[in-house]
Amino acid sequence: MAFNSVAFLLKIGEQTQKPLWEVVLEDDMRDRQVTRKASMDHMKTLWEAMKSADTAYNPNLQSRSKLVGGDGARMMDFVHSGKTIGGDFIGNVIATALKMGESNACMKRIVAAPTGGSCGVLPAVLITYQAENKLADEQIIEAMYVAAGFGQIIEARACMSGAEGGCQAEIGTASAMAAATLVALRGGTANQSSEACAMAFKNLMGLVCDPVAGLVESPCIKRNVIGAVNAITSADMALAGIKSVIPADEVIDAMKEVGDSMPPSLRETGVGGIAGTKTGREIARRLHGN
């Protein structure tokens, strides 16, 4: 990939007078030596997998640990009741994020977006946004290149692994990618996508990775919900003309610094944080016998 900073990505967009998705698409073609059609077909495959994971959700399935299962359906029933505080759109985003996370825990087909632990964030906002606004698949597929561009820059400058940088690196990255993508889908500028990315990341800075019993289930799945909703609020702020005080690249670098300073107990070891609570330890003993 030719981009190692958001600033450079934006600069190329300005110089070529092309939208960000087109800039990232062309870079993918050069990097992997593929045709435009091959690149877009691959992205279409990812999008179809996201949608199929949503439609194939089974509310009757539980994970082997019995910690998760059915919450996506419970949330959807609540949306249908008309009693949600955030309205149907936010309610559907929440439900979809839960369904994706539960499908992951139940070993069904999911898309790492960018990781398995954060697989619900990007699909939740894209699937719900498409349904709400009656967009064609082609529009979503194009926008996914924006997510890919920002995600690859984050990976190049920092990391996406909870074991390396805490949950801020997983849910934070997914939320930042989703925020930038939503701005693009809404017709915002490249600079506004950058602002949304920065704000989404800042909101989750310092989030630790503390899976109960070492499983990517609790609190991971519900954090996908937070990441998805955070992406929406960050995108709306950016579209309103609100700017991040700190540029996106500096926020990404700060995330890496914070992740590097986290103790091992807070980086996916299942020892500290929520995993280290009395109940968390009891669940671990029940499941693992130690």
Structure description:
With 290 residues, the chain is an all-alpha fold. It has a single domain, classed as 2-methylcitrate dehydratase PrpD, CATH 1.10.4100. 65% of the residues lie in helices and 0% in strands. The chain contains 13 helices and no strands. Helix 6 packs parallel to helix 9. The N and C termini lie far apart (44 Å). The mean pLDDT is 96.
Portion of residues in beta strands equals under 5%
Would you identify the CATH architecture?
Orthogonal Bundle
- Proportion of helical residues: 55-70%
Rg, rounded, reads 18 Å
**How many domains in all?**
1
**What is the CATH topology?**
2-methylcitrate dehydratase PrpD
> How many E strands?
0
**Could you give the order of the helices and strands?**
HHHHHHHHHHHHH
Mean pLDDT: 96
User: Judging from the principal axes of the Cα atoms, what is the shape?
Assistant: globular
CATH class equals Mainly Alpha
Largest sheet: none
Poorly predicted residue ranges: none
In whole angstroms, the N-to-C terminal distance is: 44 Å
Structural class: mainly alpha
The helix tally amounts to: 13
